Amino acid sequence: MQKKPVVRVAITGAAGQIAYSLIPRIASGEMLGKDQPVHIVLIDIPDSMKVVEGVVMELQDCAFPLVRGITATSDLAEGFKDVEYTLLVGAKPRSKGMERKDLLLENAKIFQTQGKALGKHAKSNNLTLVVGNPANTNALIAASNASNIDPKQFSAMTRLDHDRALAQVANKLKVPVRSLSKFAIWGNHSATQYPDLSYALVDGVQVSSKVEKTWVESEFIPTVQQRGAAIINARGSSSAASAADAAIKHMRDWSLGSNGEWVSMAVPSDGSYGIKPGVYTSYPIVCTGNGKYEIVKDLKIDAFSQNKIDLSIKELLEEKAGVSALLK
Ligand code: NAD
Ligand code: LMR
Fold this sequence. Notes:
Layout: E1 7-12, H1 17-27, E2 38-43, H2 49-62, E3 67-73, H3 76-79, E4 85-88, H4 104-121, E5 127-130, H5 135-145, E6 154-156, H6 159-173, E7 180-181, E8 184-186, E9 194-196, E10 201-202, E11 205-206, H7 213-225, H8 227-235, H9 241-256, E12 263-268, E13 280-289, E14 292-295, H10 303-322
Parallel strand pairs: 1-2, 1-4, 2-3, 4-5, 5-6
Antiparallel strand pairs: 7-10, 8-9, 10-11, 12-13, 13-14
Helix pairs in contact: 1-9, 4-5, 6-7
């Protein structure tokens, strides 16, 4: 078998808690495949580079066969040079009592600077996943500032919400998660997101025929929408291992394909389902490999779902209006 060329993978926020779970999994081949050698680029701000030094030492000590190089830097020109996969994790997390959009003003500038640098230095096929919150609007900012890169090569993470929802349904129906399909998150990675069970199947049968409507509306939807806050209340800091897990799955499916399965990711709206171009919104998506994906088409949306989707898009438009000065 022909050996694959080494690809450069950049992770920002490399000293942070998500990165600590994420980096070894990328290095072991869980994200891009066990036959894909990688050069890992760890990026953080100057004040965090001492911690990054320790992360580098641990990464070296794992002696992962796929790791062909490690770079640690706070210089974006060096960090993003020729990258093909970028995970923008570095940003401030929220604390108890905050909504994710409360982070917008503090974090938005980071994504403007990083978008510009990606446009200048990354490979033209680079795929960027935005994890730092508020993720959808940060993805919009980064993509809008990255000249020469197709906005469809940027996406924001709603895979954690997707997996949280699958876990809730699997637990309710006492089935393994793999029995479930055709589930999706719509809208913003925020408390307005809409976890949509309308088309979901359990072993080929409609989930909606097996669960009560009151459970869906009063338990399932609010639990998924508020799960990030519940974790912050319990742990004192935001989700990390599960966020890293979702980032691995998002990038894996985006680059290798989702085998016809529906996944959730926030991508540029293209007019599908009446959502006008101009925001990054989560849709039901099938990834077809090599960074390509299709929004699942022709679903009938009932009035309940439409109302929920509209509310989340309204919030995305408000967030966008708040950062208009940073958009190109
Ligand atoms: P953390 O505080 O543990 O780490 C953040 C890291 O980012 C720190 O090392 C910090 O120095 C670094 N950083 C700050 N500014 C930077 C910059 N300009 N360039 C590079 N690095 C920078 O936070 P965490 O728990 O790892 O969370 C990171 C972000 O991910 C937060 O915004 C959090 O809200 C978000 N998050 C998103 C999801 C999601 O589902 N989309 C899930 C969990 C967390
Ligand atoms: C999550 O969903 O766990 C993250 O977005 C962190 C948060 O602020 O909720």
